[in-house]
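ingest -> validate -> predict -> emit
validate: passed (alphabet ok, no gaps, 77 aa)
predict: started
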Amino acid sequence: AILTITLVNGTEKEYDLPNAEVDAFLNWYDARDAGRGAGSYAIDKHSNNRGPFSKRKDYVVFDKILTFEVSEYITTE
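emit:
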């Protein structure tokens, strides 16, 4: 699925993630909205690793999220 997050400053961040990771983000968001959990969430950038990095994560801060969208798709291999 494609997870698109729009931040309060207008910046859009887009991630191509497995559905399980999108579900984990949604669970974190709902818990944080209810006052539980961490104030930020780490999103693994997977195949977007460029350079000598073994891993890259993008941290999204809860109170900076304006909206988000999930666009699911089916891959044909």
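The radius of gyration is 13 Å.
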